[in-house]
Design goal:
The protein folds into 3 domains: about 1-130, MgtE N-terminal fold; about 150-260, CBS-domain (Roll), CATH 3.10.580.10; about 280-460, Tetracycline Repressor, domain 2 (Orthogonal Bundle), CATH 1.10.357. Helix content is about 70%, strand content about 5%. The chain has helices spanning about 1-20, 20-30, 35-45, 45-60, 60-70, 75-80, 85-95, 95-105, 110-120, 120-130, 140, 155-165, 190-195, 200-205, 220-230, 250-265, 280-305, 310-315, 315-320, 320-345, 355-390, 390-425, 430-460, and strands spanning about 150, 175-180, 185-190, 215, 235, 245-250. The strands form 2 sheets. The protein has a 3-stranded mixed beta sheet. It has a 3-stranded mixed beta sheet with strand order 4-5-6. Helix 3 (about 35-45) crosses helix 5. The radius of gyration is 30 Å and the shape is elongated. The model has no long low-confidence stretch (mean pLDDT about 85).
Length: about 475
């Protein structure tokens, strides 16, 4: 129902744009939720999206800012760079500081300072402070707008203060308890405020063992902590345990979506800003380098096959089965690699569990290899034995590929588990590089096993 309604609005906006009725299009969008506006702007052609958003900024700045917060970062930045300087500054000032920081960090460097200078001092100061933290850390994605009170404040005073200052906070999920120097002492939920006597001091009802993160904590680790403990927000502290900000669950969801998207794209050798309805030139620019790298990797496998060309010439039927050898090894490696990369992202796989993971995946590869190897051995023995009128020939060929399957899947399991962990240890994105390394190494080693075993057999009897 909602999807049909949005499609109708999308068609209406498109017709209004073609007629040049931009104010009417903007007025129509203001009746929608911000996330729906973001979705519609994302489905419009690039030029139409830009002029409609510009009209929305003039018509309802607050709604435009809310819609901007719901967009993918690359899309939001593209719209911002098309606006006038004063419009961008006004928009950034309407955004929560963490959202404004994210967008400013993605702006071209020559525009970043220009827009910050045009913003109000208090807002630009906060954004500059957040930009001082490393990218993809808790400090960069936190908001400094949190609700904190002294430990001696009573429940009644806390409720009154919350009502008075409610507009200052993006989301007041928890009340944080601090001392006179802003050291984090504890946390009180809003439910606790309502259920306790009004004269009770906060120190009596606060939870002292606070789940918190440091400013330099990786955003993936923040997301894992929030998901593990089912938090609505997590406080951020500096090296002196002073409360400097909070990260709310909506920001964590954005991180989870962003990281999951990056991992999925990276495993395919595609960058996250490559979109189905995006520019063909951008897609070529993003994909071509990885395809060229894949070509180079494939040529390594070709070199292995070429080294054993004499073996293949003596029994051309070995070449017929190469696609089976290559496909099974690559598929097994991809399965393992996907599970391990996901495990790294969830914090399940680390340096202390590497040996267990590699051993487990090698064992899985061996069991799968025995089953697959036995199956393909029987199939090849019967198929080629009947095809060539020599069951003995079919059994020998089936034996070669059967043994190769076992060795190949063991190697695929071990490499699929080991390579992502090693890349993570060297601070290389395991999702981005694992596919290239693991599949290439698996293919090379599989061809070496396959043709090496065949060569050994050929030295004893003719295949």
């Amino acid at each position: 129902m909602q999807a049909q309604r949005l499609n109708l609005v999308l068609d209406s906006v498109g017709r209004l744009v073609r007629r040049g009725a931009m104010s009417n299009a903007a007025n129509l969008l203001t009746k929608l939720r911000p996330v729906d506006i973001a979705q519609i702007l994302g489905q419009l052609p690039q030029h139409d999206s830009e002029i409609v958003f510009e009209a929305l900024v003039r018509h309802d700045l607050s709604k435009a800012a809310e819609a901007l917060s719901e967009m993918e970062t690359s899309r939001a930045v593209a719209l911002l760079t098309r606006l006038k300087r004063e419009d961008v500054s006004r928009l950034l000032q309407e955004l929560p500081s963490d959202d404004a920081t994210l967008l400013v960090s993605e702006l071209p460097e020559e525009l970043r300072d220009e827009f910050l200078d045009a913003m109000k001092l208090e807002h630009s100061t906060v954004v500059n402070e957040l930009l001082g933290f490393a990218d993809e850390t808790a400090g960069r994605i936190m908001t400094p707008d949190y609700f904190a009170l002294d430990e001696d404040v009573t429940v009644a005073e806390a409720i009154t203060e919350l009502q008075r200052r409610s507009e200052e906070f993006e989301m007041a999920f928890y009340l944080y308890v601090v001392d006179s120097r802003n050291h984090l002492l504890g946390v009180v939920s809003l439910r606790q405020l309502l259920l306790n006597p009004s004269s009770t001091p906060l120190r009596k009802i606060m939870i002292g063992d606070v789940i918190k993160v440091a400013t330099d904590t990786d955003q993936e680790e923040v997301a894992r902590i929030v998901a593990t403990y089912n938090l609505l927000a997590v406080p951020v502290v500096d090296e002196e345990n002073k409360l400097v900000g909070i990260i709310t669950v909506d920001d964590v969801l954005d991180v989870i979506r962003e990281e999951a998207t990056e991992d999925i794209y990276a495993l395919a050798g595609v960058e996250a800003d490559d979109r189905a309805l995006g520019s063909p030139v951008n897609s070529v620019r993003r994909r071509l380098p990885w395809l060229l790298l894949s070509l180079g990797a494939a040529l390594i496998a070709v070199a292995i096959v070429q080294y054993y060309v004499t073996t293949i010439e003596e029994s051309i039927w070995l070449a017929v089965l190469i696609p089976v050898v290559a496909t099974m090894g690559s598929n097994a490696a991809t399965q393992t690699m996907t599970v391990v990369v996901r495990g790294i992202g969830l914090g399940e796989v680390g340096s202390d569990t590497t040996s267990r993971v590699v051993t487990k995946e090698a064992l899985v590869g061996m069991i799968n290899g025995l089953i697959i190897g036995s199956t393909v051995c029987v199939i090849v023995s019967i198929w080629f034995g009947a095809r060539l009128g020599s069951m003995w020939f079919g059994i020998k060929l089936g034996g070669i590929i059967g043994v190769t399957m076992v060795l190949s899947l063991v190697v695929a399991g071990a490499l699929g588990a080991l390579v992502p962990v090693l890349l993570k240890r060297f601070r290389v994105d395991p999702a981005l590089a694992s596919s290239m390394f693991v599949v290439t190494f698996t293919d090379v080693i599989t061809f070496f096993f396959y043709l090496g075993i065949a060569t050994l057999l050929l030295s004893h009897f003719k295949l």
